[in-house]
Write a structure and sequence with these properties.
- The chain has 86 residues and is of the alpha+beta class.
- The protein has a single domain, classed as Ubiquitin-like (UB roll), CATH 3.10.20.
- It has three helices and five strands.
- The protein has a five-stranded mixed β-sheet.
- β3 and β4 form a beta hairpin.
Length: 86
C-alpha cells in the first residue's frame, strides 16, 4: 500500500466537495474506489471520474487500465475533468 494525495480540479472538485484528500491504496483503481466510497459522494462524482483524465506525479495515465497503474508512496494523483474553452 502507498499513501499520497488526490487533487481534484474543476467539476471533479465540485463533485468531491474538496480540493484534495489523502489515499492509502496500491493502485489508481483502488484509490478511486476508496474516494468513491466516501460519505456524500453520489452519482455526480462517479460520472465526473468516468470522464476524467488522470496524472500521477505529473505523468499521464492515458488509456492504461487503472488497476494496472501502481501508486508509489507519496504520489500525487491529479483528477482532470474535461475542460471547456477555446
Amino acid at each position: 500500500m502507498a499513501t499520497g494525495t488526490i487533487r481534484y480540479w474543476a467539476a471533479a472538485k465540485a463533485a468531491a466537495g474538496t480540493g484534495e484528500e489523502p489515499y492509502d491504496a496500491a493502485t489508481l483503481a483502488d484509490a478511486l474506489v476508496q474516494a468513491s466510497g466516501r460519505p456524500g459522494r453520489a452519482g455526480d462524482f462517479a460520472r465526473v471520474l468516468a470522464r476524467s483524465s488522470f496524472l500521477i506525479d505529473g505523468a499521464p495515465v492515458g488509456t492504461r487500465p487503472h488497476d494496472a497503474v501502481d501508486l508509489p508512496d507519496g504520489a500525487v494523483v491529479e483528477v482532470l475533468p474535461p475542460f471547456a474553452g477555446g
